[in-house]
Structures are given as structure tokens and as C-alpha cells.
Amino acid sequence: MLQIAIFSSCFEKRKQFIISLLVLQYGTVLEYDAIYYRKVSLHLKNSDFYFILCFVLPLNFPEEQFCLTLHSIYHMTDQGTPFFKHIGNIPYSPRWEPKQMIAKALQRVLDAEMPFFKIYYILMPVLDKFF
What we know:
- The radius of gyration is 16 Å and the shape is elongated.
- The protein has 131 residues and is an alpha+beta fold.
- It has one domain: Roll (Ubiquitin Conjugating Enzyme).
- Strands 1-2-3-4-5 form a five-stranded antiparallel β-sheet, covered by helices on one side.
- It contains two helices and five strands.
- It has helices at 2-24, 98-130; strands at residues 29-32, 39-46, 49-56, 67-76, 82-87.
- The model has no long low-confidence stretch (mean pLDDT 89).
- The chain starts with a helix and ends with a helix.
- It is 43% helix and 27% strand.
């Protein structure tokens, strides 16, 4: 019985997180999981650089942190998939409200990850031609 209560609580917290993200990032949502509330993809812009940011929530969210992945919309790998980068070291506490989790994650992406992501994925196809 305790496991059902824990599962139900995690489901409600995932749902609350996804709904908060939909409200805060209205207009940027590409897709989201409206059944299990495990994933949402956003189409975002930083300066004139567009990218996709995916949040993936584990079943035991918020006790376990969500995963973030940046996807380029400009360049593909040799296998035909978009370049991507998993984002780590995101400030996180399971006690925070969804709004704070989202704000900290977006701040980390824009401040610490975007400069590298832009340079690396814009220059990589050019550098590949020389090496």
C-alpha cells in the first residue's frame, strides 16, 4: 500500500512540474507526455541561436533529478541524428517548487552551456572538413 502512495505522489509531482513548465514556457513547447508526465521538449532561442531542450523526469521524481539534453537544430551527426549534449551539474533540490527547479535549470543552460554548445556545434562541421 505504501508503494502505491509513493507512486501516486511521484506521478502528481511530475504532473505539477510539467504543467508549471507549460505555463512558464508557453509558446515554446514542442511536445510533452500528457499521460505519464515524463518528458517535455521546448524550442528555445538564445540570441539568434535556436535549439531544443528536453526535460526527462524519472519515475521517482522529485527524489531523483530530471535529465536535461540540448539538441542542435542546425547540425546532424554522421548517423543522421541531431548533435546533442547532456547537461549535468544543474542546481537541484527535491524540496524546491517546480518554478524554482525550472528557473535554475534554464539559468544553468543559458549561462554555462549555451556558449560552449554554440561554438562547438557551429565550428564542428567546419573543422571536420579539415581533419
